[in-house]
Write a structure and sequence with these properties.
Distance between the termini: 39 Å
Number of strands: 11
Shape: elongated
Order of helices and strands: HHEEEEEEEEEEE
Helix content: under 10%
Largest sheet: 8 strands, antiparallel, barrel
Number of helices: 2
Radius of gyration: 21 Å
Length: 177
Amino acid sequence: MSIWKRVGSIIKGSKPQPEAKPSNPFEDTQVGDIVNVDLEEYVVSGKAVYFDRGFPPHRFAYYLQNGKHISCLLVEKGRIYECFLCEFVEGSLDDPNDVPTRLDIGAESLFELEHHRSDTVRTEGNTDFRGNDQVLFWRYSGTGDRYFFLQWQDGKYVAMEGAPTPGSQIQFLKGSK
């Protein structure tokens, strides 16, 4: 080995390696990854990322599939991550202006509107929405730590009912790629 090769290898070895950015599984999970919630495993079949233009994302919806059953893990980013495991609910409304502030869906299920907002959504995989378009979003709270979420985009409503799930009970595993 010549002296120049040795000097070159010493110089290459002394360059600082770029630091790997820490990954946040609540935001970075992709379609095909595995999510374990309350000891049940799901495959992420779709992902919707909600944001205001010019700002970082603040809500993530993961469509979770276990066999033929599809659920949704909704992650809302604030000072902490609020996580909700939701089931889809069938129903319809004709106009987003007709959305009530109080929902009574029977069986002693009464929900009060917490907040309403309009977001832009970016999607991948199998979701109910078209990407890079506006979505109206309503969040209701109910009795017994239950929540109801309603979303609207171009005449299509998606309704979900769910309960909070501690982030510590959710495990994210990278899928094989």
